[in-house]
Target: DCC-interacting protein 13-alpha-like isoform X8
Amino acid sequence: MGIEKLHLEDALEDSPQTRSLLSVFEKDAMTLKKYTTGLHNCCQRIMKAQNELCAATQSLSQHLRDFEIQKFPLESDDSVLSSTLKQFSSYLDDVSSIQQVLSAQFSETMMYPLSRFLQADLEEVTTLYEMFQMASNEHDNAMNRYMRLPKKRESERQRSEHNEELYLMRKKFHQTSLHYYSSLNALQYKRKCSLLEPVMGYLHAQRAFFQMGQDAVGKKEIEDFLNNISTSVQGVQQEMKAETKKTVELIDSLEQQSAHLYHAEPMVDMPYIPPNTTLTQKAGYLYVRRGKHLHVPGPIGKQLIATKWERSFFFTVGGNLMSQTRGEAISTKTNGLAGSLVLDLNEPGVLAEPHESDDRRFVFQVLSPKSKRNIVLQAENEREKDEWICTLNNIVRESGYVKGKQGSQAKPKERTPSANSLSKQGSGSVSPDQGSLGRRINPFDQSSNEVLDTLDSAIDSATFVESFVVRFLGSMEVTTDRGEKLVHETMRQIMAARAIHNVFKMTESRLVVSSECMRLIDPATNTLRTQFALADISFWAAHPENTRLFGFITRTKAPEATHSSFSCHVFECNISAEEICQAIGTATKLAFQALMQRKLPPGVGKEKKAMEKIHQVKTREKHLLLQNIQQLEDAPEGEEEEEGGSLHNLPLSPDGKYLVLTAADESEDAFQSGDLAQPMENLTVEPLKQTISDSFDTEDVEPESEA
Model:
């Protein structure tokens, strides 16, 4: 069947049949324009969807790569999941590049032909339609004016003008009609090309896309990767099913076991559970009373003006009673992460006992005479109250304090004297309090090993050595190498982490601080656990509130690293942590002086060393001389007067500062008495017979005990 056309020969005649046929073509053109506009909208949606798919794929790939920079608290840095997602991201980048190619092909083969058909052809028909209507109206008007001309000869000129006007309008109408008819006829051919070409371009682009996708994604490498991941996911799902089954069973078991805990007070039909009075650690929620107190004289005593009870989580760790609110446990950006210290249970006089409250039940209090604090707490029931009281008193009892014996139950000092101080005291000298006082027993590490006083040969030559009993609490990497607030914050976080994860066991060690290094030694086997060079210790500090906590920051650097890393180590001791910090300061000071001494010129070093040895020899001789003089008994009063009179008769030296003794004076009766019968030469110290220059032959000065 051929294509219907408008006959161009009938354009000038413009008969009603031609106009009727023209209206059919015009209606067809308008319908085609409407349909083509809808097709253009559909293709444009596909184009937008393809562009959005490209952007979404790129965003997905980037999001998968960002997984490795996320700081998941429970995900390790070398997680297999991170590397797997990174591999997926690389494959998605390949898919995204192919999708971009598809989007470009859609734009060229689908959108461009359709847009050209709409803007060039259909818009041209619309424009020619308007021009045809104008030309037709102008032709009709010119015809009407021409036909109204009268028969008089006087209107010849007017007749000629109207004839010329009709000529122009008819010619214009004829030309416009020819163009309009030809455009409508051509539209019948263009509709087939313009409607088929976009769809054909779409399918060609999709075929090319799938072919490129097959080449990029259908590799054997990707197939093996997907099979491995699928197997791994199936294994994880099976583990999750097994774990879910165990979890359901555990939930049922916990619900059955915790049935008696749902009631704050046990029901009458429930079995009686006695409180555990042997606990040395406990944690749980308690209500603490806060408010202002007014001291009123009389039998009423202390009355509470404003009372407020707050619920907090209390726990015991390292001999301390700590508290922490629920908000502090959740917030990781505030300084309240580690909770707060409520009371040091190792203070003398601390006691937990029941307390009578007018408006509350199950109330007990913790008294501290030293800090003059009275902490009033409320438990859920009577058993919880008794367990808390027994636990706190057990911790106080293990720290060495017993009610009514404050004077004899002071904290023992486990500090081991240095090697020089041991030589001065002698092997048989014992401190009067050393045997009577027992050291504090760690409630979390019941170790019975005593601190070994022997030092290894590596630090025998150190000028300063002191030993302390410490318990390691934890270490954490820090950002800088110094700062008292940094050390305190690290202590808070480590104590909170131990409490949150229920880590109460501590390792006891012997900390040996010397001018050479710092060492942690196992007291049971006397073996070295770790060693810190003094040059790597950058800062140390004690806790501002708990005097038994201290920490120090060390600097470490890997062989291939460009920057050093810093770690803070926290310990607990039985004595004041300030003493250990002072010992570390003394050791570092002596080490620095020794380092500067080694850097001095050779002559300066020998001269200074010689002066130090001279001073040591003189100090030793003076000390021995004073000891010998103290052994002499006082002479009788009469002899003192005679001796005084004889001394007044002795001649003076030329400068008037000394008495000149003669041979006769040395044999006076005052020196021949019974107690002072020993000759003067016996009072002479033997080392004085040796010249000062001879004393420099030995490297070290002899100990005083040998002198």
Remarks:
- The first strand starts at residue 283 and ends at 296.
- Residues 328 and 336 are 5 Å apart (CA to CA).
